[in-house]
Design a protein that fits this description.
This protein has 679 residues and is mainly beta. Helix content is 4%, strand content 46%. Strands 16, 17, 20, 21, 22, 23, 24 and 26 form an 8-stranded antiparallel beta sheet that branches. Strands 27, 28, 30, 33, 34, 35 and 37 form a 7-stranded antiparallel beta sheet that branches.
């Protein structure tokens, strides 16, 4: 572990036009807090190598990340796949926040760090500095968008900081239905969409406006978090209330005399009552010009038990229906369905849980208009050894307390047991249902699920064979050459039987740096040779692959090519190919093409050829755009705005304003107007 210094952030970062924060680091000696850990890559050694899969409980994906010695320390960097801002993903453990990192580059670069809806942007220079994020919510993936004139790989990273967060509570308000006391200028749903860059705003001035969330079930609320647009010198005044029925509200937090000017305000709730509806009422505004609103409201609970039986492996003594239907989350389907009593059913939880409650929900049947009690006779047992031995939890085989038709559909039992399996044995039917068969609609077991979810790392595909037009030496009837680049293994290519030198060839249209190649065969694996060419005339053999290696990915020294060929000499009789693959990156060789894009209306050029124009401009091709109309319609002069938007958008992807031409016709309603695109 290297000696390190933590950064105290100067929070005077300016909010840019793109809505992102830019921070500058101020070095300060500090001890690493107990809730933080640092990943420094030193144990990976000094040799340059790819970093894939899991490392230090993070997942770096299938490709794109590398480690190796730089100036005496082991660093992390990303492969350069694009010239613009490249997105690089790291999956981090559940319950952690990506708190920071150190970085440097040859000259200058920016790193935008994205975690859920939170974003920080940092300026990177030639001197290594440490940077700290201000993220507040844990996300299981962080994205580093790196922009560097010398390529993404020029930016060297180190000392990734992960910070533990409290996962014992859950935000139960996000994405739930909302309502307000009146019309909204910005949607009420913005107030709990998980994005602090959006806001709910009441439509109109004045205080005493409320916003309400329906949690959709009752929870014991532990605390809340209210996020405003920014810190205010004159604090917002508000109150937080909650209700079980949506009509009678209790006060959870009275901030009508609030003196806290912070952007983020929190409060603990001591009430043990369970609530379904939570309301925020804005009682005072920072200024008369303000309208009531906020960016995000979060309601937390520690009632985070989940049904650990749902979807797990089951078995039963018999019945016409699958035993899995008793844990499918659908009470209208049911396991069993047999006239044989006793009927038993088991569920394997897959691991040991501390179960706090079990529940059976029965089918709610009536005899005509008369509701019938679901007073089934049964017992529930549990096991801590996978079903070798069973302990009794509930025994209603002789007498059941559920004799009231109104309350007998859902039957539950509180408990506190460590187990990994349950067994339900139904011994008899309800007395008033003499013809009933043994069924089990839904069984549930509630526990705090401590099993840690995982996020996959980045999955980068630079297989440039996909979708490419293919030339073949010959094609057997029904086996098209294009089948080998369609990513459909059910479609294949075969040459004609008399083709002694069968081959597949692709014209890449421009230079690529090829890294590897692979052939997928149907059954008979064939040896083959891999060739490259720059002019489709002179070919260079890169690989001679034997049959025992032909179904594997063959790594090659990076080779620049405009054409590639797979040659299968003397193998045509049994040869059948499903797919061909080769990884490569655009070599960035300046182009010589002249491209003219013709479009009837503004934005058509982007929809038709935005990607083509961007790529062509990157490699130096000459790109010009001609638009027939100017944006006016039905006699309305709206064209000036459309023209400005078009020019701005095209310049973003690399098309200069002097290469954009407008013919000046109106979209509808006739008319013509001369356009000077330089203005």
């Amino acid at each position: 572990m290297k000696e390190r210094k933590l950064i105290a952030l100067g929070m005077a970062g300016m909010l840019s036009l793109s809505g992102l924060f830019t921070f500058s680091g101020i070095e300060a000696e500090a001890k690493l807090p107990d809730n933080q850990l640092v990943i420094d890559f030193e144990d990976l050694g000094t040799e340059a190598q790819s970093l894939t899969g899991k490392y230090q409980n993070c997942n770096f994906g299938n490709r794109g990340w590398n480690t190796g010695a730089v100036d005496g320390d082991v660093k992390l960097w990303a492969d350069s796949f694009t010239k613009d801002g490249q997105v690089n993903k790291i999956a981090i453990p559940y319950g952690k926040i990506f708190r920071g990192f150190s970085a440097k580059c040859s000259e200058s670069a920016t790193i935008k760090v994205v975690s859920g809806s939170e974003t920080n942007t940092f300026e990177i220079g030639a001197t290594e500095k440490e940077f700290t994020t201000d993220f507040r919510t844990n996300q299981m993936a962080v994205y580093l968008v790196i922009e560097c004139a010398k390529g993404t790989s020029d930016v060297k990273l180190d000392d990734l900081i992960l910070e533990e967060v409290d996962i014992s509570k859950l935000n139960v308000s996000q994405g739930k239905p909302t309502s307000t006391s009146g019309d909204s200028e910005r949607p009420a749903s913005n107030g709990n969409d998980g994005d602090e860059n959006t806001m709910w705003v009441n439509n109109g001035a004045g205080a005493d406006k409320w916003w309400q969330v329906d949690l959709q079930e009752a929870y014991t609320i532990s605390d809340y978090e209210l996020v405003f647009e920014k810190e205010e010198s004159n604090p917002w005044k508000y109150k937080v209330e909650a209700s079980a029925d949506g009509e009678n509200f209790d006060m959870l937090s009275d901030k009508t005399e609030n003196t806290d000017s912070a952007k983020v305000q929190t409060g603990e709730v001591s009430a043990e009552t369970k609530y379904r509806y939570v309301r925020v009422t804005i009682t005072g505004l920072p200024a008369e010009t303000y309208w009531a609103g906020f960016a995000e409201f979060k309601v937390y609970t520690k009632d985070i038990m989940s049904n650990v039986a749902q979807g797990k492996s089951t078995s039963q003594s018999g019945g016409y229906n699958s035993s899995d239907l008793a844990v499918d989350g659908d009470v209208t389907t049911f396991g069993g369905n047999t006239d044989t009593f006793p009927y038993w059913w088991t569920v394997d939880l897959g691991d040991t849980y501390n179960v706090k409650e079990v529940e059976i929900e029965w089918e709610d049947l009536k005899d005509g208009d008369t509701n019938i009690a679901e007073d089934w006779k049964y017992k529930i047992e549990y096991s801590a050894d996978g079903g070798s031995t069973w302990e009794e939890l509930v025994d209603y085989t002789s007498e059941t307390p559920y004799t009231d038709p109104e309350t007998s559909v859902v039957q539950n039992e509180a408990c506190d047991i460590e187990c990994n399996a349950f067994k339900v044995t139904i011994t008899d039917k309800p007395p008033k249902r003499p013809l009933a068969w043994a069924v089990l609609p839904e069984f549930r077991a509630f526990a705090v699920d401590t099993h840690i979810p995982e996020e996959e790392g980045q999955n980068i595909n630079i297989d440039i064979a996909y979708g490419q037009p293919v030339k073949a030496s010959s094609v057997a009837e029904g086996y098209k050459a294009s089948n080998v680049t369609d990513y459909d293994s059910a479609s294949t290519w075969k040459p004609v039987s008399e083709d002694d030198t069968a081959y597949l060839q692709i014209d890449l249209d421009r230079e690529y740096n090829i890294q590897n190649h692979k052939v997928e065969f149907t059954s008979a694996v064939s040896s083959y040779k891999f060739y490259v060419s720059m002019d489709n005339d002179t070919w260079t053999e890169v690989s001679d692959v034997s049959a025992d290696q032909a179904d594997k990915t063959v790594d090659i020294e990076v080779t620049t090519a405009k054409y590639v060929r797979f040659e299968f000499a003397g193998q045509s009789e049994d040869l059948e190919v499903k797919e061909i693959h080769f990884d490569g990156l655009d070599a960035g060789v300046p182009g010589e093409k002249k491209i003219l894009v013709l479009a009837p209306h503004e934005d058509d050029e982007m929809l038709m050829a935005g990607g083509v124009m961007n790529r062509a401009a990157e490699v130096g091709d000459e790109v010009k755009v001609l638009l027939a109309t100017n944006g006016d319609y039905n006699g309305k002069s709206t064209g000036k705005g459309r023209i400005v938007e078009t020019i701005n958008a095209l310049e973003v992807i690399g098309v200069e304003s002097e290469d954009i031409m407008f013919m000046g016709y109106a979209d509808t309603g006739g008319g013509y107007r001369e356009i000077d695109s330089s203005k």
